Structure formats: structure tokens, C-alpha cells
Amino acid sequence: MSGGMLLLVTALLPVAAAGGVLLLRKSPNVREASTLIFGALTFWHVLGLLHRVQEGERPRLDMLEVVPGVQLAFELEPLGMVFALVASFLWPVTSLYAIGYMRGHHEENQTRFFFFFAIAIAGALGVAFSANLFTLFVFYEFLTFCTVPLVTHHQTEEAKKSGRVYLGILLTTSVGLQLVAIIWTWVLAGTVDFRTGGILAGTASTGVLSAILVLYVYGVGKAAVMPFHRWLPAAMVAPTPVSALLHAVAVVKAGVFTVLKIAVYVFGIDLLATLTTTSWLAWAAGATIILASLVAFKKDNLKARLAYSTISQLSYIVLGALLANELGIIGGGMHIAMHAFGKITLFFAAGAIMVAAHEKKISRMHGLGRTMPITFGAFFVGSLSIIGLPPAGGAWSKWFLAMGTLEAEQYGLLAVLMLSTLLGLYYLLEVPVKAFFFAPPEDAHRSEGIHEAPTPSLIAICITAAATLGLFIWPEVWRELMTMVVGGAG
Amino acid sequence: MSEHLPALLVVVPLILAPVAALSNRPRAAFAAAFAGCWWALYASLALLTRVRSEGVISYALGGWAPPYGIELRLDLVNAFVAVTVATIGAVVIPYAWTSVKKEITEDRIPLFYTAFLLMLSGLLGITVTGDVFNVFVFLEISSLSAYSMIALGQDRRALTATFQYLIMGSVGATFIVIGIGFMYVMTGTLNMADLAERLPAVMDNRTIPVAFTFLTVGITLKLALFPLHLWLPNAYTYAPSAVTAFMASTATKVSVYLLLRFFFTIFGFAFAFGQMRLNMVLMPLSLVAILAMSLVAIYEINVKRLLAFSSVAQIGYMVLGISFGSVLGVTAGLLHIFNHALMKGALFMAMGCVMYRVGSVQLSKMAGLGKKMPWTMAAFVGGGLSLIGVPLTVGFISKWYLVQAALEQGNWLVAGLVMIGSLMALVYIWKVVEVAYFQEADSDVEIREAPLSLLIPTWVLVIASFWFGIDASTTAQVATDAAELLLRGGS
Amino acid sequence: MIALGLFNYWAVIVLMMVGFYTLIARGNLVKKLIGLNIFQTSVILMYVSFAKVSGGTAPILMDAGDHAGDAAGQVLYSNPLPHVLMLTAIVVGVATLSLGLSLVVRIKEAFGTIEEDEIESPSL
């Protein structure tokens, strides 16, 4: 199979899975089995692509010309590979988890849930494979729309409100800022293709290009740079698997992936380093890191705390892109993977606690660690990765990011990174510590039957936790891919 | 026969109209209307193909050579608009069969089809003719038939809406006649191409700016540019569903075409934009139209009325594109004529489905329809996505060109305002979606999905609005060529 | 004298303004229609006025010697085209008026009044 066809097949597999879900809605077991099988198939295909990309191939597929000069096209390069690899690996794992969660939680409309879930993954893969800004924007918006039914899954008043915030912020930023930036790029450069070294260099004055950079960074609302972050906590009304995969992996990573991609392939590192707004925006990302950590501190609802932690972590990647040097980009790209595995573990654990013990508040989780040791153990591992401590994968990406700030001589930003580590240390580790070492609250009339989450969910948690640890020992594939990104760009 | 195609395009529906009236039986009248619409679609497509390959078609009516006789003249611009009109007609007419049976008493149905055919031929006549007085005649044919169709609406307010439209429409048409008269005084000709040749010699005379002003006001009244849009919301709201769908997608579009024809082909870009500074008038007005009318739409609780205000806003987009006076801008305007026809047609037809089953299009009556009428509401969402301008829909293509035109002139403020307009569209579409999908329906009312005869035409337009959003290279090419033609000065 | 020479056009303007004013200011629907009709009629007068060529005759085919021809035997006609155009405009005007009046009849049936402010009052 040619590389281009392989891309198409890979992106269509989740769509096929969605179709399967719809066809097999009568028997839930077969329906879920088909999701898992398609998930595994997708990952297997992505691995095939990984092999080709590592050997230097750049699979490409031109689908059609939408307006003269602007094509809907796929092209896979190492950065997209990182994102595709993460999303496609975590999809079947999350599906496994979702089976336990959705049934354990007695959720309604499961067919619709699994349908849009699969569709959303197709959207994420589309984002990863995009060959130009237009295609990227198409799938970016596609991802926005097909996750709305997931966010509003419960169809309650709260879900409705959250849906408004979610759609409102994501579309305001993308249509109001990002699209303007894309069209502006098209007017200036005459192309919207992603090219090594960027397409904007020399097309307009530094002032104009700086303004476009601002439009891009804030226009990618999915990267949740403050003040456009409110949609992420709002999206937490969704069932936990959605929060886990979409709002720790697919959707938010699509955002920061877009920022990285624009930094490297539209502006190019060299141009980026000369723009006036680059360092301002880097500081805006730095501010988001600190502020979001502080908010996370104060949240007692576990999922809300994780959401703010995610906002904070996303800005690490934006910061990496805006450091405008190779180490920053490598660190940012690696952080996509490292954060994904760590954060999904945390969300899985949060969901498991919800299903098994029906607790959402951290202050009411005291002592739960004794009854749910595996879940809280996994939570501990995930926390380490997010904080950036060995022996978890997050240590590596943080290392590169810190090196990047040093090379850019942005010592203030280095301090930001260190401060956020300290904050993370507290607000994340508080949960397992209290669960393991504190006595249960006295008014907690816990029924006797609390034990670990349903088996499929538990397996999923163990897989991601193990992977988080594994990434510390084998970070090589990510580093290699990211080096290819900057190697080509430099 | 094929050399008479330009005339037959208009004449066949015109002749079928009295046939429909005389038959006086719904079924026969429908057959006549159906034949007329599909004939128009075939003929206009054939003409567009011919114009694309062979260039301008000039047809001397009755064998009297222009500039003395009446000339029918087809170039890319009006062939494109004629195809738009005919397409909508051909899609709406099968829809009308079911929809009209419910909304109009049986004895009036043949007359409805008569008026429909007259309106179609009037609109096609405006597009293909190369004679300015002919424009007025066809304009009145289409308007008078439109008035009578709107008056067929069930609500008695349809009558007052029609009366208002009749008064304003007639004033607009009379203004156009006055403008034409002044041009004739100065040049002694009514032929468009001939006018374009003779006008430059007399441009200095004060009569020409006066003629220009009368024409501008008259045409903008007909196309419902803010603040001359007052007739539109009521007319669209109370007209029968099929009429609204047809009118919203064609009547104002043809007037936009007239604007292009008069300003670019006849008066010429240099006069209209250089001397008369038309853009200084059109740009602010269209921006106000986009923002203010979207805002009104947000607070509207009758969905048909909401869509009507949205139409006024969308007309703002078309005029805005034209007001840039650049190839990109006019391309955007032309594209939006076609694109908006598809999406607004789909939206109004979806509302017709709701009307058919629920009997009302008040927002409060639409609670829970997402479950009860899934296909209808899905069509509404599809059309709505296009209105917002989501990628891979036709609305996006229009916006892509429009914003490009703004940025090309460094006008980032306008680009931003266009985007704000899109976001306002999101608000009013989402408002309907929320009610339809998130509110519980009254359990005691039994509502079923609309019949297939309504759904299929609706979905044809929905699919078309995605199709031409995914593969816009043909439409964009035609529109770009047409825009270049216009800016070169016409013929 | 110039003002008098343009007498027809003054009449056009007066009629136009009378019609337009009635159209806007009157609340009675029939009066509105009358205003509209006067407005349209003024345009007819305008077209016919500028079609007149001084000394010209009706454009009918005739022998050269019969009438006010010049030496070359050519006959001076008034411009027939605007007259023909106005025939069409009259037809359009009649159609508009009859449609308008029939609407007024139906409005009377439906609302019981043809006064604009009474139709729009909230009690209805």
C-alpha cells in the first residue's frame, strides 16, 4: 500500500468503527468488541506509518482542491506522527476503560457515545495528518463539533450551559482569530502548505507577522492559553472517558499540536525568534502555567483540579514552541506524549473513584486508598509524570523545556517552570497522600461493597500507568521524532 | 432550437403559467409548474455550459438587431445567476406539492402554481435580458407574482405584510424606472452594452449622477439592504413555506445581480467607485446590516422570522463583497449569491417541514423536535453550519473569499467584523438547536417526522451545500471569471 | 422663462412629491394606494415629456409633402419609444393597483379596518 493510501485508511478506520457501532447497536458486547478491534487496527496501521516516517518517508495524499490553490490534503511528518501515535494508542485503551465506566455508571445513550467517540478520533487523526493549514482547520473544527454531543451527553441544564461555553469559546477563537490568521497567511504567502522552515518569512513586516502570531496563538483555543481556557473546565461535565481521552489527549493536544506545527512549519524557528510578540506570548503562556496551577490548588472537585492542571500543562507546550529554539520544540513535542499518558492515568483514576466510591470531592477521599490501592497507586504514578519527577516520562520533557529556557536565556521562564513543579507537587500528590494516610471522614457512610473499579477499567488504568513509567526508560522514539522535526527545520 | 434557448428559457415558464391557471386543477397545474422549473434548469445549465466554452451569447429578440431591438445577452455573470435561480426553482417545486396542499386552500392551488411560474420567468427574465427597460418589466412580473403568493399565507398578517411589500417594492421599481429614464434622456438607448459605450461621453452632466442615485436606491430597496429591508422580515415570515424558501433564495439574489450589472457593466467601475464613491455608502451599510440584523435575529423567537433577519444580514455579506470593488470581493459576492441560496433554501425548507407537522415555527413549539423529527432538525443543523461558515460547507467558501478580499486591502477591521457576524450566526442557530435537542417535548402532542416528499428536496439542498463546500473549485472558478469580466467593464 | 419652459417637469416633481407624501404620511391603505398611483403617474408624465420633440409630429408613416417636413423631405417625429415604454408602465401600474386594492379588500375582511394604526394596534 502506498503511504498516501495508508494515511487515508488509517484516518477512515475510526469512521468505520463508528459505522460498526451504529450497526451493532442492538448487542452492546459485539458493539464494544468492534470498537476495540478497530482501535487496535488503527494503532497497528499507525505503527506501520511510524516505521515509514522513521525511515524518512513523508506519506502524502492529495484528496481534492477545495478552492483553486487550496487543497484538502494529508501529509505525515514526524510531529504529526507523535500526535497520531499518542491518540491512536490511547483510543483502544480508553475504549476498554469506557466499557467498564459506562456500564458501571449506568450511562444512557451508549451507542451515541461510542459513535461520536470514534468520530472524534478520526478528527484527531485528520488534524495529525494535515498537510496544510486549511486541512488542519477543517479537522480542528470537525473535532470541535463532533465532541459537542459528548460534552453535552447527559442533556441536563448543566450540560447545556457547558455546551454553550465549550462551543462558544472554541468557535469564537477559531473563527474569530485563527481563521483570520490563516486567510491572512494565504494572502501574504500565497500558500497554506506546511513547509520546512516556514512560509511566512519575508512576506510582510515584522509588525504584521507578530500580529499574525498573536492571532494564531490565541486563535487556537484548544491550547487553552488564558483567558481562553474556560471551555476546558466546562467540558468536565462529560462522562470521564471523554474527559480522559478528549480533554486530556485528543482535543487539547490537537490544540497544542497546532501551535507547534504553526511555529515550526508556518513561521519557522528562525523567523519566530525575531518577532517581537514571541517572548510576550511566551510570558502569557508562563502566566497561564502559574495561574492555572494556583486555581487547581483551590479546586476540591477532582476532575476540575485535573482540568486546571491540564491547562497549566498545555501552556508548557505552547511555551516550548515560543522559546523558538530546538530544545524548546523538542521538549514541547515530547510533552505532548508524556503529558498525555500521565494525565489520562489521572483521569482514569478519577473516573474509577467516581464509579466505585461515587466520590468527586478530594476532601471526601480520605482513606479510600486502602480499599482502592491499584487506582490510587496509578494516580501516584501519573502525578509523578505530570510534576516531572523520575521515574516517570514527564521528567524528560520537562528537562528539555528547562534546557530550552536556558538556551533562550529566559531565566524568568525557567523559574516559572520550577515554581509550577512545586505547585504541582502539592496539588497532585495531596490526593494519593490523603487517600492512603488519612482516616476516612466520620460522616462518610460508605457502603461495605467499595472495591476497585470494574475490571476493564482497571486493566486500562494499569496499562497507562505502566506506559507512563515505561516512557521514562524508553523516551527514545519521541526524542528521535522530535529531533527529525527540528533537524529538518534548522 | 438551441439558438433560441435564451428566449425559451424565459418564455416556456411564461407560457406554462396561463396553462396552469386555465387547467384549474391542482394536479395539472403542478405538472405545468414542474415542467417549467425543470425546463428552466436544463436550459440555464445548457446556457452556462455554452457561455463557458464559447463566450457571450447575444440573442436578438424577434430578429430585431440590438441596440434597437431587445437583446438577451448571456455572459458568465448572469448565466451563473440564472442557474442559481433555476436550481432553487427545480428543488422547491416538488417540495411545494406537499407543503402547499397543507397551507393553501385547494381552489387556490392552481393559481399558486401560476404565480410561481410567473415569478420564475420574471426572475429569469431579469437575469438574461440586455435591455434596461426590460429589466423593469420583468422585475414587476416577478414582484407582482411574489406579492400574490405571499398573500396566500395562512396568517392574516400575511396580508398586511404583502401590502407593505407591495408599497415598498413598487416605490423601488418606480425609482428604477426614473433612473432608467434619465439614462435614456442622456444617451437615447436602453441597451446595456450600448449604454455602457455611450455613457462615458456624458458622464459630466449632472443627470447621470442623479440617475445613478435613483437606481442605487431602487435596487437596494429591492435587494433589502439595510435600512431598506423593512418589507422583508414580515414577508418571509408569513408567506407559505415553499414561497419563503423560493423567494429567500432567489428574489433578493437577482437584485444583487442587478446591482452588479448596473454598477459594473453599465456605469463602469471607475464611475461607480471612483466618482460616486459607492463603496463609502455600501460598505458601512452592509456592515451595519451584518451586525445589527444578526443581533435582531438572536433575539427573535419565531424561527422563520429569525431566518429572515439572518437573510438581511447575509445580503450584507454579498453587498460587502461588492463594495470592495476588487476581483476577490466581487467573487465573494457572487459566490455568496449561489451559496446562500443553497443554505437558506435548505433552512427555510426545514422550517416548512416543521410547519407541516407542528403547525407553527415559534421557538417554544420546537422543544424536543430533535428526537421527534430527527431528519428535519439534522437538515436545519446542516444548513445552520453553513450559515455559521464551518469549513467544508458553502458558507465557509464565501467567508474565505470575503475575508481574503478584506485583508488584501489591509482592512483587518472589516475582516474581524465579518467573523463577528459568523459568530452571531452561531448564537442564533445554536439557540434553535438547544431548544430542539435539549428541551423536553410536550408529551401529549404526537409529532411524526415530515413526509419524504418534503424531506428529499430539503436534503438535496443540504447535501448540495456540503458538496459545493467540499469541492468549490468549479463554482469559485466561474465566480472568479465572472468577477474579472465585470471589473473589466462588462462585455 | 426657463422655468416655464420646463413646466412639464415642474408638474412631474409636484405630482411625484404629492404622491410620495401621501404614500408615506397617510394611514388609510386606499389613500396609500392612491399616493402610489400618483407617484407612478408622474413618471409616465416625465417619460412622455422628454419624448416630445418641438415641432415634431406623431410618428405615423406619411407622405413627405404632407406635413412639417424639412426641405429634404424628412419628417420630424416625436420620439415614439418612451410612449411605448409607458404603455407597458401603465399596464404594470394597473396591475399593481388592482392587486393592491384586492389586498385592501381582504385586509378589510380579515381585520375589519383599513386604517394602518388600527391594524397594528396590540388589541388585534
Name its key features.
heterotrimer, A: 490 residues, two-stranded antiparallel sheet, 3% strand, globular, B: 491 residues, 20 helices
Explain what this protein looks like in three dimensions.
- The complex is a heterotrimer of chains A (490), B (491) and C (124).
- Chain A contains 19 helices and two strands.
- Chain A has 490 residues and is mostly helical.
- Chain A has one domain.
- Chain A has a two-stranded antiparallel sheet.
- In chain A, strand 1 (60-67) and strand 2 form a beta hairpin.
- Chain A is globular and about 65 Å long.
- The model of chain A has no long low-confidence stretch (mean pLDDT 85).
- Chain B has a domain at 277-491.
- Chain B has a two-stranded antiparallel sheet with strand order 1-2.
- Chain C has 124 residues and is mainly alpha-helical.
- Chain C has one domain: Helix Hairpins, CATH 1.10.287.
- The model of chain C has no long low-confidence stretch (mean pLDDT 82).
- The A-B interface holds A 64-68, 70, 72, 134, 137-138, 141-142, 145, 152, 155, 159-160, 163-164, 167-168, 171-172, 175-177, 179-180, 183-184, 186-187 and B 385, 388-392, 397, 399-401, 403-404, 407-408, 412, 415-416, 419-420, 422-423, 426, 430, 434, 437-438, 469-473, 476-477, 480.
In brief:
The complex is a heterotrimer of chains A (490), B (491) and C (124). Chain A is mostly helical and 490 residues long. Chain A contains 19 helices and two strands.
What layout of secondary structure does this protein have?
The complex is a heterotrimer of chains A (490), B (491) and C (124).
Chain A: H1 3-23, H2 28-54, E1 60-67, E2 70-75, H3 78-104, H4 110-129, H5 133-151, H6 157-189, H7 206-219, H8 231-234, H9 240-267, H10 269-274, H11 277-298, H12 302-322, H13 326-357, H14 368-371, H15 373-387, H16 394-407, H17 411-437, H18 455-473, H19 476-489
Antiparallel strand pairs in A: 1-2
Helix pairs in contact in A: 1-2, 1-4, 2-3, 3-4, 3-9, 3-13, 3-18, 3-19, 4-5, 4-9, 5-6, 5-9, 6-7, 9-12, 9-13, 11-12, 11-17, 12-13, 12-17, 13-15, 13-16, 13-18, 13-19, 15-17, 15-18, 16-17
Chain B: H1 5-23, H2 26-54, E1 57-60, E2 71-74, H3 76-103, H4 109-128, H5 132-150, H6 157-187, H7 192-202, H8 207-222, H9 231-238, H10 241-267, H11 269-275, H12 278-298, H13 303-323, H14 327-358, H15 369-372, H16 374-388, H17 394-408, H18 412-438, H19 452-470, H20 473-487
Antiparallel strand pairs in B: 1-2
Helix pairs in contact in B: 1-2, 1-4, 2-3, 2-4, 3-4, 3-10, 3-14, 3-19, 4-5, 4-10, 5-6, 5-10, 6-8, 6-9, 7-10, 8-10, 9-10, 9-13, 10-11, 10-13, 10-14, 12-13, 12-18, 13-14, 13-18, 14-16, 14-17, 14-19, 14-20, 16-18, 16-19, 17-18, 17-19
Chain C: H1 2-5, H2 7-25, H3 29-51, H4 80-111, H5 116-120
Helix pairs in contact in C: 2-3, 3-4
